[in-house]
Amino acid sequence: MADYIPALAGVDIGRFGMAVVDVDGGVYGVGDWEQPFSVQSISKAFSLALVLAEGGDRIWDRVGTEPSGNPFNSLVQLEYENGIPRNPFINAGALVVTDRLQSLTGDASTTMLEFLRAESGNPDVSFDPAVAASETEHGDRNAALAHFMASYGNLDNPVSTVLEHYFWQCSIEMSCRDLALASGFLARHGLRADGTRLLPRREAKQVNAVMLTCGTYDAAGDFAYRVGLPGKSGVGGGIVAVIPGRCTLCVWSPGLDARGNSVAGVAALDHFTTLTGWSVF
């Protein structure tokens, strides 16, 4: 479990849930699939999609698309690369994306919350103030990353504003059902639940591609090898995965490996793709 975020430290690591939502709207679940949990870094996939939808591909001038090979909160790589994060899913990259979403919308965290409520069909999706406060109190490393990037001119908004919205969006609580529904636009090549287009097909492909190569911290290669799907994990124990043209999946189990990914979640997705034969390869 993510015991460095005290508000998450007490979650029962024996919990498990899994949901599958097909592109036609069929919803299937097992276990604790309707139990809300802290989405944490899964939110980064949605913030990236919203930035692409609102502002196009200019974000790629400020953040790369390569796997990092380092821990998700590492400062070392930023110094080598002059304040340009390696990808949008490490913490530094996610801070840049949040900064951009704040500039585009004026309220990054609320914009994301409203989007997730709409796509999941659940108006009760909400922030967890206790988790947000816990992350703020123990967010010195993220603050250091943000200040370092600001020193290179890679943040447009005040560091305090970017951190506030970043912590709030990570604190959002959703269930496996909610997350599998909300990520359906990635399986539908950019189409939202109501049939309108959020992203051009090309940009939906870009999000899926970066999820495949960078979505599970510095274990992305192993995840791609075992599971073979675009995926985004969070230290709350959730993993969202996408099979373009078929379905989205979300699995939740709070027991984490050393790299911050759900142990049972990765195993369940590995088993699912083995049984179904479904993958992007």
From TrEMBL:
InterPro entries associated with the record: Beta-lactam/transpept-like, Glutaminase
EC number per UniProt: 3.5.1.2
Protein name as annotated: Glutaminase
Reactions listed under catalytic activity: L-glutamine + H2O = L-glutamate + NH4(+)
Database matches in NCBIfam families: Gln_ase, PRK00971.1-1, PRK00971.1-2
Keywords carried by this UniProt record: Acetylation, Hydrolase
Binding annotation for substrate: S41, N91, E135, N142, Y166, Y217, V235
Assembly and interaction partners: Homotetramer.
Family statement drawn from the similarity comment of this UniProt entry: Belongs to the glutaminase family.
Enzyme class: hydrolase
Organism this protein belongs to: Streptomyces blastmyceticus
